Amino acid sequence: MKVNEVREKYLQFFSAQGHAVISSAPVIPENDATTLFTGSGMQPLIPFLLGEEHPKGAKLVNSQKCFRADDIEEVGDNRHTTFFEMLGNWSLGEYFKKEQLTWFFTFLVDELGLDPERIYVTVYAGGEGIDKDEESVAVWKELFAARGIDAKDIHIGSEEDGYKKGMQGGRIFYYDAKKNWWSRSGTPDKMPAGEPGGPDSEIFYDFGEEFADPAYADKKLHPNSDSGQFIEIGNSVFMEFIKQEEGSFKALPRRNVDFGGGLERLTAATLGDPDVFKTDIFESTRGAISTLSGKSYEGNEHSFRVILDHLRGATFMIGDGVLPSNTEAGYILRRLIRRAVRHADLLEIPSGKLGELARPYISVYKDHYVSLDEKEDLIVNTISNEEEKFRKTLVGGLKRFKKIEGDISGEQAFTLFTSYGFPLELTLELAEEQGKSVDVEAYKKAFEEHQSTSRAGADKKFKGGLADTSEMSVKYHTATHLLNRALKDVLGESVEQKGSNITPERLRFDFSFDRKMTDEEKEGVTKIVNDQIKKELPVTFEDLTLEEAKKKGAIGLFEEKYGDTVRIYAIGDYSLEFCGGPHVENIKDLGVFRIKKESASSAGVRRIKAVLE
Predict the structure, then answer these.
(1) Domain boundaries, the chain
(2) What are the residue ranges in the chain where pLDDT is below 70?
(3) Which residues on neighbouring strands pair with residue 510, listed in sequence order?
């Protein structure tokens, strides 16, 4: 099957089960960013999973654009990508384990035509005062039995234990909390009081022993191993518990289902080949790379995959408003393009061609993600310009490299990477040519420390963003609506929100503007916001069709194909904006608004940091 076909089948199947189709959120969180990127289908739905009522009801389905920066270094094998689409369906208290597992299993076998004999599932083994998930096991046994399969359940425990025990003729496998429990904080012991979570049930597809990594030849394989033979294609999370102050767990009054499945991996399963880069979505770009390089995909898989993945990720990031920079999302975009340049050179692709490789992606995705078609020239030109800049940077990096006397320390290699974009493999090649050695272990240590720092920052952002529904965060979130409207009043209607981040201490707001604001403009914006607060305006919302919201003049992104019903929030008669909440009931409690800093975020984008006092 083709990727677009699998996506459409999934949306239609769950729509037939009473689910409302909702639109994909941007890959860059549009409002109150909790992380740099939207990394899962549930992330934009956190307020609703925590109790807010969704405007389209309690049964939802969509295909969400996702990006995971942590997977950049993993790209090169047959299944890891930074950008991907996650098929998702949710129950906000409507149904639970039996319906969810039955529907998805039916979709896999009857809609996609997958062989049930190749399907293996995992469940929670219990712990932390919570029983093992025998309810899911009972459902799975019944589903497999209906297909003529006697599903034996096996206790595995940890991933390490799995390599010792192997399959043991099992079909259903119990794993510990590291594998089959979900919460935003991780395993049950790490969850703070008030945090919701629950067991999950993952589904794996067996592609066959011939696809197993030879590095695992001396180990017994099991479904939740990373060998390449078994690949996860879906995960149903059953959010049914909440952590108590004393450390125990209590049942939630409303149990939710959160399902996510990789669209590309599901498509690969229909083809019987785990290499997601052989699915049709990559076909045109793969062919263009082959033509430009004069090389075939076979035998050059690693570099092909890096280019294929990174250019697709860059295409969607630019399409959602990101431009290359030295910070946050813009830095990740810059890193993607630069890594693609490096591997284009390895394949001997002529310089200046990377931007054109984005066009096949735009062509294949434009019917579902219409904004890509509208921004085609911007996407192509941005990639091309960044490639040109990087090639100039490489010249400077080469000069720096030549100045290094003797062997290259880990710190020097890491500086070449961070300051000049030299991947470690490039430094190793330059060093080998001159008979120098590189302290690879020290480089890896520095790189790991860099990653740990980045993750810590991301965790802080996650805990301090929209998922934090503290009183101050809600106030700051409401204040961004006033700021958004005031900026348009002062700077012009062409100003568009490009992102925001909320903590209990401040708000940060990015917007499109091509120059530094004057002091008079900042004072004007501040006065407007505070004047509105003094009016003690109420905050109300209503659910409208997409067309009705447009006619009312609501501010928001209405780009995607799906999402015909939206929620808009009004602050008196001053601000009208598409948003998911939460907000204060009346802005009189916001306090005094003050801009602390206005600066550049990236090319054509400015950033305001402000506080409420």
Answers:
(1) 3-277, 279-393, 471-612
(2) 30-34, 419, 421, 450-469, 556-565, 580-581
(3) 499, 607
